[in-house]
Amino acid sequence: KKKIKKEIRKADGELAKRLGHKPSQLEKEPLRPMYSRYWKIKRALESCQSRRGAGEPPAGAGEQVLELLKY
Q1: Residue 9 and residue 61: Cα distance in Å, rounded?
Q2: CA 5 to CA 34: how far, in whole Å?
Q3: What is each CA distance from 71 to 13, 20, 57, in whole angstroms?
Q4: Whole-angstrom distance, CA of residue 48 vs CA of residue 66
Q5: pLDDT for residue 12
Q6: For 12-69, how does the pLDDT look when each residue is reduced to its tens digit (9 = 90+)?
Q7: Over the Cα atoms of the chain, what is R_g?
Q8: Position 1 confidence tier, pLDDT thresholds 50, 70, 90
Q9: Is 43 strand, coil or helix?
Q10: pLDDT for position 45
Q11: What is the pTM of this model?
């Protein structure tokens, strides 16, 4: 998750540098796949952590996160 977030920040910074201003949501559209991947991984990790907090084993959540990391 941290690696993807770092990549997003880098791409966002490079875009801002190239444009000369903070990019608008429309200008960030090419970054959407990176953001989508980040949010999917974040949700899967949160789901896994909430199950552990409830005393339940993380049934399938670990595999889901690993599968998302492949892309």
Answers
A1: 26
A2: 9
A3: 23, 31, 25
A4: 12
A5: 94
A6: 999 999 999 999 999 999 999 999 999 999 998 888 877 666 555 455 656 666 666 6
A7: 15
A8: confident
A9: helix
A10: 87
A11: 0.64
Instruction: Name the residue with tokens 């970054």.
Output: 31
Burial 35-70 (b: 16+ CB within 10 A, else e): eebbebbeebbeebeeeeeeeeebeebeebbeebee
Residue with tokens 């690696």: 3
Query: How many degrees, rounded to 5, is the angle at CA 34 between CA 27 and CA 47?
Result: 130
Left (φ > 0), alpha (ψ -120 to 50) or beta: where does 37 sit?
alpha
Amino acid at 4: I
Residue with tokens 């959407």: 32
Both tokens assigned to 20: 């000369």
Tokens (6 digits) for 5: 């977030």
